[in-house]
Amino acid sequence: MKDILIISNYYPPEKGAAANRIEQLALKLNQNGYTVSVISPLPNYPKGKLFPEYKGKFSFIEKIQNITLKRLWIYPSNSSNIFKRIISTFSFSTTLFFYLLFVRTPKKVIVQSPPLLLSFTAVLALWIKRKKIILNVSDLWPIAAIELSVLKKNSVSHKFLCFMERFIYKKATHIFGQSNEIISHIHSIFPDKKCFLYRNYPDHVIENIVDKKQSSDEPIKLFYAGLLGVAQGVYEIIQQLDLENLNVELHIFGDGAEKTEILNYINKKQSNKIVFHGMLERNVLHETLQNLDIAFVPLKTRIYGSVPSKIFEYTALGFPVLYFGGGEGEFIVEENNLGWVVHVEDFECLNNVLKQISQVGKDEIQNMKKSIFIHAKSHFNLNEQMKQLIENDAF
Known about the structure:
Layout: E1 3-7, H1 17-31, E2 35-41, E3 59-64, E4 67-72, H2 82-102, E5 108-113, H3 116-128, E6 132-137, H4 143-147, H5 156-171, E7 174-177, H6 180-189, E8 195-197, E9 220-227, H7 234-240, E10 248-255, H8 259-269, E11 274-278, H9 282-289, E12 294-298, H10 310-315, E13 321-324, H11 328-335, E14 339-341, H12 347-358, H13 362-379, H14 382-391
Parallel strand pairs: 1-2, 1-5, 2-4, 5-6, 6-7, 7-8, 9-10, 9-12, 10-11, 12-13, 13-14
Antiparallel strand pairs: 3-4
Helix pairs in contact: 2-3, 3-5, 7-8
């Protein structure tokens, strides 16, 4: 059977890694002969407001790049208030639950988790209807919530989320884990559960970004591109950076809950060492990045199971990585010689590494780019990964 449904909280035209990786999954399945449909909320991320073309609609069906998209109602919010965000997730989860119960859907369904509440309601409805459930786990909740200090261990909320977590693992036919730590965690609960490693490899069209020539007189330009949220901790990081006497700049691209604080800090400091660009379309961003040097990939704290997709996203474009997130990501960067690793939350070490980077010449960085581009092309290959998964009956 070649019909398959994907359920996700994010999908383009929304921006960010989560939307991009689900779109890539849908497109790759379609290229491999599957008829793919996607259920997601009416687009609202990251601003927490419905996109203008979807306002006033309760649901909307459209077809983009041969993928049938079914957009369902949501109460949108990107508030830092955890209760408002729960209400937002609950609104879509409720709409989704009744849709899955009463509307005909394919036999095979891929469910993205987190959000945990969304994946729980989707798995519950699909289990009732005896569907084949393929759970795609990109982060471990509630573990991540504990490590980010947004949830207290052994609280009522924590115990309830643990119940939902165990439920979705138990009822899934099999599971995609986007890190080895995720798979190890699932096997610690259900040792016999069939799991597949599914990395967030990109599928870039750009092939020549590393051939861009730059003046050796220019400063070395780091960039952060992505969500400006609590988990990334960009606002805290820029307060700790000491760039004034270094041949280094930091360029920030993105949007999210910390955007206002970041802008206020940059304006107050009045330094030309940190430059904010806002959110750019992906193709425009890639074009802009050709003038930059090193991808900065941070996490506020070490989150068990998390491997930022930015590692694969930007090494596939040939960028060395300065990784500041701990966990399995450190191992990937070090094992593949992708750049520099700084232990998470060690700001003194981060500034020392920036001093080392400041002394690296442009020619050396250019050589790193070429080497990393070639390595990523062969080792982080989405087509090869999809081929192996299909051969192993993962879909």
